[in-house]
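EI: anyone free to look at a 395-residue chain?
SC: sure, send it
EI:
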Amino acid sequence: MAVIIPVSIIGSFFTILLNLPIDAWKTFIQPYASMLSIPMYYSISLMAVYCVFSITSSLCKFYDLDPVSTSVLAEMSFFILAIVPNVLTKKVTGLQPGTYLPIGNMGAQGLFTAILCAIFTVEVVRFFYKKNLIIKMPDGVPTAVGKSFSALLPGIVIIIVSFILKEILKLDINAILTWIFSPIGYFGHDTFLSAIIPVLLITIIWLFGVHGMVIATPILYPYWYANLNANTTAITHGNAPVHFMTEQFFQWFVWVGGAGATLSLAILLAFFSKAKFSKTMGAVTIIPAIFNINEPLIFGIPIIMNPYFAAPFVLAPTAMAAVTYLAMKLHMVAFTTVVAPWTLPGPIGAWMATGFDWRAIVLCIVNIVISMLIYWPFFKAYDRNQLKLEKADGE
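SC: here you go
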């Protein structure tokens, strides 16, 4: 799903362009607002369509299958299962008679179906290849043509199964998947637990060496991006954003420096260490941490399975999430409305993601200070131990 990040960011640039907090600019841009909102519709609003292709392609590379022909089959399966065409028989204002595809399920609302279609399609194609149940063209036939015919038999099965589920059995796969994951959907609401529980789960999993995004990406992102999509749509129509529980909420106010809010730890290591190893690690990791890259710190200290840093790794971002929740609940800071590039320094990314609200910069800095205070006693204990070990080695 990381493949779609550039698409989301590009679409968000147009959101920023339409919402610069300058009255003269707003007056100037207003006649072009409808035209400039089009890229937003073709970015976040079509997220599921892009995810089908990117997930299918990635899984095909893992299995050494043809990513192009398989991704096309997955897209077709997705459209059959998730999209119901609207047929317009009479001319309506601005619309000619014809068949139209509603984009509702093409965005974050259809992500669960997108993931399912991608995996289902690849596994069917893989089964046919493994059992050698494919049409093989003779030597001399262009490679692209040969791959197309190889995908024909599994493609027939994929399309027939999708058709039967949707048109014969009348199953709304998207609604079924949404219902199955509906308990998790609670964490897409603007509640205190929605801010706290994901942070606890992600950081605890990280401590055991498993990337925390294995939880967030397939399960929580659909809800977070649905909220962001609702905010973007509201702004496009001149309304106020309606949700603050988005992926950008965590990116810019909780994961400052990366998972565990480790920018604060990098600062402490770089400027307050006495042990040579601690100071060296701080010097090496602080620049990547400023740009939200903390793998050198997580695996270099290491933080994983480290009794010194396990508690602050969980507690610091949890406290930051609580403070951010209160700030946004009380409307002290604007809601996030755009996807800012994740490699920006925290305060700058927070400023952009909230539509250039200067209070977001203040909140981000306050959160960093809170994180430093939480990390401080654990950092001091770790640094003292490192200094003790270094003195023992010297002797």
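EI: Residues 17 and 36 are 8 Å apart (CA to CA).
SC: 👍
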